[in-house]
Amino acid sequence: MSKLRRYRKIMEKTYTDRAIIQRYEDYEVGSETKQRLTTKYQDEPCRISQTGLARNGQTEAENQIDYDAKLFIAPEVEILQGDELEVTRNGRKYHFTAGEPFPPYSTHQEVKLTRKDRA
């Protein structure tokens, strides 16, 4: 087994989270073009890691939590800037928007995410 394949297997052992990756795509309604959110990947093994401190937008009416995170996922999964991700960890769901993906390594890819709490 090559070193890269061995390293990829080691990386994939850390993928304890699961992701649903969605993207807005155009569709036609008569002569009008609209957009809808389309699921591109379902139950994709991955791992999220927090990269920055949370920014808490607490007010009396709203508690908005934003922070940056990094997604580790297989290199063949296509993620585009602006994709919507729902990542499940230990039964809890987190919602993110993908930033511009860093060109993937042969063993994995890293994608910067921004969490937007939907509460």
Explain the layout of strands and helices.
Layout: H1 3-12, E1 17-29, E2 32-50, E3 55-58, E4 63-73, E5 84-89, E6 92-98, E7 109-116
What is this structure, in a nutshell?
This protein is mainly beta and 119 residues long.
- Rounded mean pLDDT is 87
Q: Into which percent range does the helicity of residues fall?
A: under 10%
Given helix and strand content, the structural type is mainly beta
Residue runs with pLDDT of under 50 for 5 or more positions: none
> How much β-strand is present in the residues?
over 45%
| Largest sheet, strands/sense/barrel | 6 strands, antiparallel, barrel
Q: State the strand order across the main sheet.
A: 1-2-4-7-6-5
Please, could you describe this protein's structure?
The structure is a single chain. Helices cover 8% and strands 57% of the residues. The longest helix has 10 residues. The protein has 119 residues and is mainly beta. The mean pLDDT is 87. Strand 3 and strand 4 form a beta hairpin. Strands 1-2-4-7-6-5 form a 6-stranded antiparallel β-barrel.
Quick tags:
six-stranded antiparallel barrel, mainly beta
